[in-house]
């Protein structure tokens, strides 16, 4: 949820999930664990499952925030070992944190929910966010297996062969013979980038070949697996420093 509130007041309540929030503007105050807490711009909120809290604006200007709720079973799956055996659940000690690393991870996770983002990117953003929260904010952090697997090459081979296909993390995990979050950790350790980064790089190289062959940027975007020309342009500039049109004219 992404919302701005001025007069709204949350009644005391809890969620049956983990709730991770990021305050964008203003400040909100809430009661939690017997005291009043304030989350100002740039601060992170972390609520454990079934943790009661209320909430309202700190002043008349209100506050804008984003929050996502993650089922405990999914958190356990993210922290599972290579065989997919679930891990124990973490406990977050403070409901409000000032931590730019956590804020950045949450911001990337929210961005991964955009329509043009792939399912692969969403799974990776989830894994990164939960791992960052556990490392930096949890009282108890189940150990995750992070060693690369010999058969992670199979996942890379599948991406090389089917980079235009809407591959999911489950597809890559099946190829590698492990859980999808274990595959994410192992792929990043082995190759220095996430599977979705590697897939995007392959698609950008395809677009670059098409542009050199004279294909119009809009058509090159479609043929290379991007949502539209704007989507291609955004990533092309980030990787190569110029727009597809400028590259083609050069």
UniProtKB/TrEMBL annotation:
SUPFAM superfamilies: Homeodomain-like, Regulatory protein AraC. Keywords: DNA-binding, Transcription, Transcription regulation. Pfam families: AraC_binding, HTH_18. GO terms for molecular function: DNA-binding transcription factor activity; sequence-specific DNA binding. InterPro entries: AraC-bd, AraC_XylS_family_regulators, Homeodomain-like_sf, HTH-like, HTH_AraC. Residues 153-250 form the HTH araC/xylS-type domain. The keyword DNA-binding applies. This is AraC-type DNA-binding protein. It comes from Kibdelosporangium aridum.
């Amino acid at each position: 949820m992404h919302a701005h509130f001025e007069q709204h007041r949350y009644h005391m309540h809890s969620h049956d999930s983990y709730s991770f929030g990021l305050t964008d503007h203003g400040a909100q105050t809430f009661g939690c664990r017997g005291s009043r807490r304030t989350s100002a711009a740039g601060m992170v909120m972390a609520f454990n499952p079934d943790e009661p809290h209320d909430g309202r604006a700190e002043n008349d200007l209100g506050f804008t925030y984003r929050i996502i709720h993650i089922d405990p079973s999914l958190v356990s799956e993210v922290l599972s070992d290579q065989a997919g055996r679930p891990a124990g659940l973490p406990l977050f000690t403070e409901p409000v944190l000032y931590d730019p690393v956590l804020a950045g991870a949450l911001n990337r996770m929210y961005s991964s929910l955009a329509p043009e983002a792939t399912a692969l990117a969403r799974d990776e953003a989830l894994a990164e966010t939960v791992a960052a929260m556990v490392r930096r904010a949890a009282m108890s952090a189940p150990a995750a297996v992070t060693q690369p697997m010999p058969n992670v090459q199979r996942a890379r081979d599948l991406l090389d062969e089917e980079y235009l296909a809407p591959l999911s993390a489950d597809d890559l995990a099946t190829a590698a013979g492990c859980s999808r979050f274990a595959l994410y950790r192992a792929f990043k350790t082995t190759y220095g980038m996430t599977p979705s980064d590697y897939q995007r790089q392959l698609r950008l190289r395809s677009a670059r070949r098409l542009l050199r062959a004279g294909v119009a940027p809009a058509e090159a975007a479609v043929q290379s697996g991007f949502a539209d020309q704007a989507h291609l342009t955004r990533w092309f500039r980030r990787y190569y420093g110029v727009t597809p049109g400028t590259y083609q004219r050069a």
